[in-house]
Amino acid sequence: MKTLRLFGLALMAVLLSVNLTSCSEDGDDPVKNIKELEGEWILLHQVYTWDTAEDGKGKEEWNYDFDTPEEGSEKLIITATDEEGIYDADYYFYRENDDDWHYDWGMTVRLDGKKLIDIDYEEDITEITSLTSDKLVLTENYNEDGDSEKVVSTYQKKN
Question: Between the N and C ends of the chain, which has fewer C-beta atoms within 10 Å?
Answer without folding.
Answer: N
